[in-house]
What does this fold into?
Amino acid sequence: MPNAPFPSSIIADFYRFAVLLTGQIARAEQVMADTLAKAELDLPQFRNECGRRAWFFSRIREACGVLAGPAVPAPRLLRESGDDQAVEILEIEAYLVAQRFQQIPEPARSALALFYLDAFTNEEIAKLLRLSEEQLADTLADGRLQLQRLLRGAHS
Amino acid sequence: MNTHDAAAILPLHRPGRTPDSRVQKAVRLAEADTELAAVLATQKHFDEQILAVIQSIVPPVNLAHKLRAAGARADAPKPKARSQVFHPVVLTAVLGVLLIIGFVAWTVMERMEKFPGREAAERMLSATSKMTGVELDPVSINAGGMQDWFYMRGFEGFAVPAELAPLPAVASRIFRIDGHPIAQIAVDRNDSILYVFRASDFGVEIPADQPWRVIAHEDWTAALQRRGDVCSMVAFKGTKAQMHEFLAALKAP
It folds into this structure.
């Protein structure tokens, strides 16, 4: 993609990552918009795509309040487009997963979200989250268990 | 690697991705172990479902467009230094530095202008302002040749800097302030007045053999220089800039 720093598949992953961390479509979109504004200033300093991707994911993570850890309001089911006020219902399973994801404590939430997205290798995820690979494996196992528990709770 | 190690590494296995050698080894071990194989199968099944759900999350079209536009801007060549000069932040920084430089320069110049004995120099200038012209005796000689003229009138040790020596003297006198003699010459160049006096008589303390020290007093501008105890001061009505021009025009010795 000559005119953009990321392939479209990675762009989609940024968005999914924001949705998984916030559990909220509107907030995820706001996070993306904020990150974009910062990207205009900071992205040119990275000469390779991996660095840019890592920067972008880290900024999204920060913008989602993962590091500060503020309370996240309850997720909404509806997505409203700004132009024609059309309302789109989010796929119910995706919504449930995003909602439950958002309840997993850090760093398991970010680790699991990055793991399911296709942007980084395990080694890169560990580096991004400042974990060893062994710690990442433990964190992923813990995250999966919590997600399963949360989804079971949602189902019941 | 034993089954315990394999179990610890298995969470790193990602569906649809070629695992690295350690994870590959752990998967092979797990597949050979009934209990671990079940754990791995459950993990794979769960991951595949979650992956499918996550992949169904699609960004809105307008967001993708925004990202592409931002990406294009990020890929665009960096602004050239010339255009960054006009950035408000850069301009502010430059102006700040210029202000500091200006202040330092002004402080240095102020210090240069202030020196012990300056008041005496100012009194000489003020005294000249009150002159009518009849106080001076006409002469017709270069300033550098006035040594005998002043010696004959009781002023010993008259000397002028070499660059002032060729200036044509048209009138001169000796006058006193606080009892100390001052040789005064009207020079036919820029309506200048040349003063020669002993620095110690008036407490003038400027470094010897240094460039001219230019001061302004009322509408006068004067330049002073000291050689030993003999201080020379050339003055005319004008600005400091005119004095600097005048000094620069003097022939170097």
Notes: Residues 116-249 of chain B form one domain.
